[in-house]
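Sample entry was shown:

___
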Amino acid sequence: MIRLYKYILIGVLAVGLFSCVKEPTSADKIQRNWQLEVYESGTGGRTNLGEQGQQLMWMFSSNASIGQNYFQISLSPEDTIFGSWEIQGDSVLIVEQMPQYFPTDSMITHFGRDGDQSVSLFDEDGTKVGHFDNQGNFNTHGLIRPFRIVRLQDTFMQLQSEDDQAIYHFSYQTPPATSFISFTTISRGIIGLAFLLFMAFLFSSNRKAINWNLVIKGIVLQLIIAVLVLKVPYVDLVFENIASFFTNVIDFARVGINFVFGQFGTDPQEVQSPLMTFAVVILPTIIFFSALMSLFYYWGILQK
Protein backbone atom coordinates (compact mmCIF):
# COMPACT_ATOMS: atom_id res chain seq x y z
CA MET A 1 0.00 0.00 0.00
CA ILE A 2 2.85 2.35 0.84
CA ARG A 3 4.45 1.59 -2.52
CA LEU A 4 1.19 2.56 -4.26
CA TYR A 5 1.13 5.86 -2.37
CA LYS A 6 4.72 6.42 -3.41
CA TYR A 7 3.93 6.00 -7.10
CA ILE A 8 0.87 8.22 -6.83
CA LEU A 9 2.89 10.96 -5.14
CA ILE A 10 5.67 10.69 -7.73
CA GLY A 11 3.04 11.06 -10.46
CA VAL A 12 1.57 14.13 -8.77
CA LEU A 13 5.02 15.68 -8.40
CA ALA A 14 5.79 14.98 -12.06
CA VAL A 15 2.55 16.62 -13.18
CA GLY A 16 3.22 19.58 -10.91
CA LEU A 17 6.76 19.89 -12.23
CA PHE A 18 5.69 19.98 -15.87
CA SER A 19 2.85 22.36 -15.06
CA CYS A 20 5.44 24.84 -13.83
CA VAL A 21 6.92 25.08 -17.31
CA LYS A 22 5.90 28.51 -18.57
CA GLU A 23 6.11 29.65 -22.14
CA PRO A 24 7.51 33.17 -22.42
CA THR A 25 4.74 35.68 -23.03
CA SER A 26 4.86 38.78 -25.19
CA ALA A 27 5.58 40.83 -22.07
CA ASP A 28 8.60 38.63 -21.33
CA LYS A 29 9.96 38.76 -24.88
CA ILE A 30 9.62 42.52 -25.26
CA GLN A 31 11.77 43.35 -22.22
CA ARG A 32 15.05 44.14 -23.94
CA ASN A 33 16.81 46.88 -25.90
CA TRP A 34 15.54 46.93 -29.49
CA GLN A 35 17.30 48.67 -32.36
CA LEU A 36 15.09 50.32 -34.98
CA GLU A 37 16.11 49.01 -38.41
CA VAL A 38 13.32 49.95 -40.84
CA TYR A 39 10.52 52.50 -40.73
CA GLU A 40 7.49 52.22 -43.00
CA SER A 41 5.16 55.20 -43.06
CA GLY A 42 1.42 54.80 -43.27
CA THR A 43 1.51 56.04 -46.87
CA GLY A 44 3.83 53.26 -48.01
CA GLY A 45 7.23 54.94 -47.77
CA ARG A 46 10.04 52.73 -46.51
CA THR A 47 13.25 53.93 -44.86
CA ASN A 48 16.21 51.69 -44.05
CA LEU A 49 17.88 53.43 -41.15
CA GLY A 50 21.18 51.53 -41.25
CA GLU A 51 23.79 53.06 -38.96
CA GLN A 52 21.34 55.75 -37.85
CA GLY A 53 19.20 53.02 -36.31
CA GLN A 54 21.98 52.24 -33.85
CA GLN A 55 21.11 55.52 -32.12
CA LEU A 56 17.36 54.82 -32.14
CA MET A 57 16.92 52.32 -29.33
CA TRP A 58 13.57 51.29 -27.89
CA MET A 59 14.23 49.99 -24.39
CA PHE A 60 11.56 48.14 -22.41
CA SER A 61 12.06 47.04 -18.82
CA SER A 62 10.02 45.99 -15.82
CA ASN A 63 10.24 46.49 -12.08
CA ALA A 64 8.58 43.41 -10.58
CA SER A 65 8.80 44.71 -7.00
CA ILE A 66 6.36 47.54 -7.71
CA GLY A 67 4.64 46.01 -10.72
CA GLN A 68 5.57 48.85 -13.07
CA ASN A 69 6.86 48.67 -16.65
CA TYR A 70 9.07 51.40 -18.08
CA PHE A 71 10.18 52.32 -21.57
CA GLN A 72 12.65 54.71 -23.16
CA ILE A 73 12.17 55.39 -26.86
CA SER A 74 14.54 57.37 -29.07
CA LEU A 75 12.49 58.92 -31.88
CA SER A 76 15.60 60.74 -33.08
CA PRO A 77 19.13 61.26 -31.73
CA GLU A 78 17.87 64.45 -30.06
CA ASP A 79 14.36 63.34 -29.05
CA THR A 80 13.84 60.68 -26.37
CA ILE A 81 10.57 59.98 -24.60
CA PHE A 82 9.89 58.04 -21.42
CA GLY A 83 6.86 56.41 -19.86
CA SER A 84 5.16 53.14 -18.96
CA TRP A 85 3.94 50.25 -21.10
CA GLU A 86 1.67 47.24 -20.90
CA ILE A 87 0.54 44.34 -23.08
CA GLN A 88 -3.17 43.87 -23.76
CA GLY A 89 -4.39 40.56 -25.08
CA ASP A 90 -0.83 39.44 -25.85
CA SER A 91 -1.06 41.28 -29.18
CA VAL A 92 -1.35 45.01 -28.43
CA LEU A 93 1.39 47.14 -26.89
CA ILE A 94 0.18 50.24 -25.06
CA VAL A 95 2.76 52.91 -24.26
CA GLU A 96 1.90 55.91 -22.12
CA GLN A 97 4.30 58.73 -22.83
CA MET A 98 5.29 60.96 -19.94
CA PRO A 99 7.41 63.79 -21.42
CA GLN A 100 9.78 65.72 -19.23
CA TYR A 101 8.13 68.97 -20.27
CA PHE A 102 4.72 69.79 -21.69
CA PRO A 103 4.54 72.48 -24.40
CA THR A 104 1.12 74.05 -23.97
CA ASP A 105 -0.92 75.90 -26.56
CA SER A 106 -4.11 76.69 -24.64
CA MET A 107 -5.81 76.26 -21.31
CA ILE A 108 -9.33 76.00 -19.94
CA THR A 109 -10.35 77.20 -16.49
CA HIS A 110 -13.10 75.28 -14.70
CA PHE A 111 -15.23 76.91 -12.00
CA GLY A 112 -17.21 74.74 -9.61
CA ARG A 113 -20.45 75.64 -7.87
CA ASP A 114 -18.74 75.67 -4.48
CA GLY A 115 -16.07 78.08 -5.67
CA ASP A 116 -13.47 75.46 -6.62
CA GLN A 117 -11.29 76.34 -9.57
CA SER A 118 -9.10 74.12 -11.75
CA VAL A 119 -7.10 74.62 -14.94
CA SER A 120 -6.54 72.15 -17.79
CA LEU A 121 -3.63 72.58 -20.23
CA PHE A 122 -3.67 71.45 -23.87
CA ASP A 123 -1.02 71.17 -26.57
CA GLU A 124 -1.32 72.45 -30.14
CA ASP A 125 -3.15 69.28 -31.21
CA GLY A 126 -5.81 69.74 -28.54
CA THR A 127 -4.51 66.90 -26.36
CA LYS A 128 -4.78 67.43 -22.63
CA VAL A 129 -1.28 67.35 -21.17
CA GLY A 130 -1.74 68.66 -17.64
CA HIS A 131 -4.16 69.72 -14.97
CA PHE A 132 -4.02 72.07 -11.97
CA ASP A 133 -6.52 71.12 -9.27
CA ASN A 134 -8.11 73.40 -6.68
CA GLN A 135 -5.16 72.90 -4.32
CA GLY A 136 -2.64 74.01 -6.91
CA ASN A 137 -1.28 70.52 -7.51
CA PHE A 138 -0.17 69.81 -11.07
CA ASN A 139 -0.97 66.39 -12.55
CA THR A 140 0.48 65.31 -15.87
CA HIS A 141 -1.50 63.33 -18.41
CA GLY A 142 0.35 60.72 -20.39
CA LEU A 143 0.04 60.51 -24.14
CA ILE A 144 -1.23 57.00 -24.87
CA ARG A 145 -0.10 55.34 -28.10
CA PRO A 146 -1.27 51.83 -29.03
CA PHE A 147 0.81 49.52 -31.22
CA ARG A 148 -0.27 46.23 -32.73
CA ILE A 149 2.34 43.51 -32.32
CA VAL A 150 2.72 42.13 -35.84
CA ARG A 151 5.67 39.85 -35.10
CA LEU A 152 7.61 39.22 -31.93
CA GLN A 153 10.50 36.79 -31.80
CA ASP A 154 13.68 36.53 -29.79
CA THR A 155 15.70 38.71 -32.17
CA PHE A 156 13.03 40.45 -34.26
CA MET A 157 10.01 42.63 -33.51
CA GLN A 158 7.54 44.37 -35.79
CA LEU A 159 5.06 46.95 -34.46
CA GLN A 160 2.33 48.85 -36.26
CA SER A 161 1.07 52.13 -34.86
CA GLU A 162 -2.70 52.22 -34.64
CA ASP A 163 -2.62 56.02 -34.97
CA ASP A 164 -0.93 56.49 -38.36
CA GLN A 165 -0.51 52.79 -39.38
CA ALA A 166 3.27 53.22 -39.53
CA ILE A 167 5.27 50.01 -39.18
CA TYR A 168 8.47 49.75 -37.16
CA HIS A 169 10.98 46.93 -37.68
CA PHE A 170 13.36 46.17 -34.82
CA SER A 171 16.25 43.81 -34.27
CA TYR A 172 17.92 42.58 -31.13
CA GLN A 173 21.56 41.64 -30.96
CA THR A 174 22.24 38.99 -28.37
CA PRO A 175 25.12 40.22 -26.22
CA PRO A 176 28.25 38.12 -26.55
CA ALA A 177 28.59 35.49 -23.89
CA THR A 178 31.10 36.39 -21.25
CA SER A 179 33.01 33.71 -19.45
CA PHE A 180 33.23 34.00 -15.69
CA ILE A 181 35.71 31.13 -15.49
CA SER A 182 39.15 32.30 -14.45
CA PHE A 183 41.97 31.12 -12.26
CA THR A 184 40.59 33.19 -9.39
CA THR A 185 37.08 31.73 -9.59
CA ILE A 186 38.36 28.16 -9.97
CA SER A 187 40.79 28.50 -7.07
CA ARG A 188 38.09 30.07 -4.92
CA GLY A 189 35.75 27.15 -5.65
CA ILE A 190 38.45 24.57 -4.89
CA ILE A 191 39.30 26.27 -1.60
CA GLY A 192 35.61 26.41 -0.63
CA LEU A 193 35.09 22.75 -1.49
CA ALA A 194 38.19 21.72 0.45
CA PHE A 195 37.05 23.77 3.44
CA LEU A 196 33.63 22.11 3.49
CA LEU A 197 35.19 18.65 3.29
CA PHE A 198 37.61 19.54 6.07
CA MET A 199 34.81 20.80 8.33
CA ALA A 200 32.75 17.67 7.66
CA PHE A 201 35.77 15.50 8.48
CA LEU A 202 36.57 17.56 11.57
CA PHE A 203 33.09 17.24 13.08
CA SER A 204 32.55 13.63 12.06
CA SER A 205 31.79 11.28 14.95
CA ASN A 206 33.29 8.26 13.15
CA ARG A 207 36.01 9.34 10.74
CA LYS A 208 37.10 5.78 9.99
CA ALA A 209 33.67 5.00 8.57
CA ILE A 210 33.86 7.74 5.93
CA ASN A 211 33.51 6.26 2.46
CA TRP A 212 35.95 8.42 0.50
CA ASN A 213 35.09 6.63 -2.71
CA LEU A 214 31.47 7.76 -2.32
CA VAL A 215 32.60 11.30 -1.49
CA ILE A 216 34.72 11.51 -4.65
CA LYS A 217 31.86 10.18 -6.77
CA GLY A 218 29.53 12.79 -5.29
CA ILE A 219 31.97 15.61 -6.07
CA VAL A 220 32.44 14.38 -9.65
CA LEU A 221 28.66 14.16 -10.07
CA GLN A 222 28.27 17.75 -8.88
CA LEU A 223 30.94 18.91 -11.33
CA ILE A 224 29.18 17.13 -14.19
CA ILE A 225 25.83 18.70 -13.27
CA ALA A 226 27.48 22.14 -13.02
CA VAL A 227 28.99 21.82 -16.50
CA LEU A 228 25.66 20.66 -17.95
CA VAL A 229 23.77 23.55 -16.34
CA LEU A 230 26.28 26.10 -17.64
CA LYS A 231 26.71 24.69 -21.13
CA VAL A 232 23.45 22.92 -22.04
CA PRO A 233 20.38 25.21 -22.19
CA TYR A 234 17.85 22.40 -21.79
CA VAL A 235 19.45 21.18 -18.57
CA ASP A 236 19.32 24.71 -17.20
CA LEU A 237 15.61 24.84 -18.09
CA VAL A 238 14.97 21.57 -16.23
CA PHE A 239 16.55 22.89 -13.04
CA GLU A 240 14.65 26.17 -13.37
CA ASN A 241 11.40 24.22 -13.60
CA ILE A 242 12.35 22.16 -10.55
CA ALA A 243 13.09 25.34 -8.60
CA SER A 244 9.81 26.86 -9.78
CA PHE A 245 7.92 23.76 -8.64
CA PHE A 246 9.33 23.88 -5.11
CA THR A 247 8.72 27.63 -4.99
CA ASN A 248 5.07 26.94 -5.75
CA VAL A 249 5.01 24.25 -3.06
CA ILE A 250 6.37 26.70 -0.49
CA ASP A 251 3.73 29.20 -1.61
CA PHE A 252 1.14 26.76 -0.25
CA ALA A 253 2.49 27.56 3.19
CA ARG A 254 2.00 31.26 2.52
CA VAL A 255 -1.63 30.62 1.59
CA GLY A 256 -2.11 28.74 4.85
CA ILE A 257 -0.47 31.54 6.83
CA ASN A 258 -2.78 34.10 5.25
CA PHE A 259 -5.77 31.88 5.99
CA VAL A 260 -4.88 31.61 9.69
CA PHE A 261 -3.46 35.05 10.46
CA GLY A 262 -4.88 37.24 7.70
CA GLN A 263 -8.14 37.78 9.56
CA PHE A 264 -6.33 39.83 12.21
CA GLY A 265 -5.58 42.65 9.75
CA THR A 266 -7.56 44.92 7.49
CA ASP A 267 -7.05 42.58 4.52
CA PRO A 268 -8.15 39.00 5.30
CA GLN A 269 -6.18 37.71 2.32
CA GLU A 270 -2.77 38.95 3.46
CA VAL A 271 -0.80 38.99 6.70
CA GLN A 272 -0.04 42.57 7.68
CA SER A 273 2.06 44.40 10.23
CA PRO A 274 2.59 43.92 13.16
CA LEU A 275 2.12 40.19 12.45
CA MET A 276 4.94 40.19 9.86
CA THR A 277 7.30 38.45 12.28
CA PHE A 278 9.50 35.37 12.24
CA ALA A 279 7.05 33.37 14.36
CA VAL A 280 4.08 34.10 12.09
CA VAL A 281 5.64 34.12 8.62
CA ILE A 282 8.86 32.09 8.64
CA LEU A 283 8.26 29.45 11.31
CA PRO A 284 5.04 28.02 9.76
CA THR A 285 6.86 27.70 6.43
CA ILE A 286 9.63 25.71 8.12
CA ILE A 287 7.08 23.46 9.85
CA PHE A 288 5.20 22.87 6.59
CA PHE A 289 8.33 22.02 4.63
CA SER A 290 9.67 19.78 7.42
CA ALA A 291 6.40 17.86 7.52
CA LEU A 292 6.51 17.44 3.74
CA MET A 293 10.09 16.13 3.85
CA SER A 294 9.16 13.72 6.66
CA LEU A 295 6.40 12.37 4.46
CA PHE A 296 8.90 11.87 1.63
CA TYR A 297 11.21 10.01 4.02
CA TYR A 298 8.34 7.79 5.17
CA TRP A 299 7.41 6.86 1.61
CA GLY A 300 11.05 6.26 0.68
CA ILE A 301 11.25 9.05 -1.90
CA LEU A 302 14.09 10.64 0.07
CA GLN A 303 16.77 8.42 1.55
CA LYS A 304 17.62 8.64 5.22
Summary: The helical segments are 2-19, 26-29, 183-202, 212-231, 233-261, 278-299.
